[in-house]
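To: structure desk
From: M.T.
Subject: fold request, one chain
Message: Could you run this one when you get a chance? Sequence is below, nothing fancy, just the single chain.
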Amino acid sequence: MSENILVIGACGQLGTELVEELRKIYGDSHVIASDIRQSDDEVFKNGPFETLDILDKNNFSALLQKYKPSQVYHLAALLSATAEAKPKLGWTLNMDGLFNVLDAAVDFKIGKIYWPSSIAVFGPNTPMNDTPQNCVMDPNTVYGISKLAGERYCEYYFQKRGVDVRSLRYPGLIGYKSAPGGGTTDYAVSIYHDALTTKKHECFLGPQTQLPMLYMPDALKATLDIMHAPAEKIKIRSSYNLAGMSFSPEEIAANIKSFIPDFEISYKVDHRQAIADSWPNSINDTEARNDWGWAPSYDLNSMSKDMLVNLAPRYGQSLSI
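Reply: Done. Structure tokens follow.
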């Protein structure tokens, strides 16, 4: 009998595509998608979906008893900009949700847990360029503070309770299959939609704000690779640095302009600039490469091409680039 996989927070940007990939591997009926409310995305019609608020321990326990999953991907979180607007909710959802999953891993003997961390764990005193795996971490956002605390608890549960928990520090994630989810790097998703519709994008970050980014196919590959790697290859149980590419708004705009010459960008900096300024410009992910063979496939140019080609039909256009 094939194992069951549970994805919590499945309707977000990452979860939607992860459910799709997991169902290709394990079969539609063996990947249980769950979220606080169901998305109308087609992928959720192809297999089981359960309404779940991860803060509801009773409902969560009932769901685990029903499906007996051997792996849980816990993606439910309030992202950076949204958590700053609702700091207490951000802390409660991000931390209590994680505790519920880690405790359930012990109580229900779940084989593997995946929990995403973020470059938000770094802060203003972190080395900004080629940020190493181990360094000063002084996050100054609720999201970053909760992710750093979560990393420490993941390692604690591995060391003290034997939970096989695995984690990646995602940079900004860019994909075309779902809408932006309230993160500081989301301009790099919106900009492609705007390029195809209005040919104009007003960016909430300054033109030279360099941030680490990762294209969604690479993010999915990294997530599945770390979960499928033998346990002895996972040397870091807090969270691995993960890198793909780094660019600024003016660089992504120039790249898009090479495909859509009349595209224009303007700037109206808002509160998200302060969040971005506290994050690294680029990430060193040597440990992920050495321990379990991580390597990205996309750079800025190949990502832009793929994004535009795949988004164009949504707006009744076709691009041959």
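Reply (cont.): The domain at 5-171+214-241 is CATH 3.40.50.720 (Rossmann fold). Let me know if you need anything else for the meeting.
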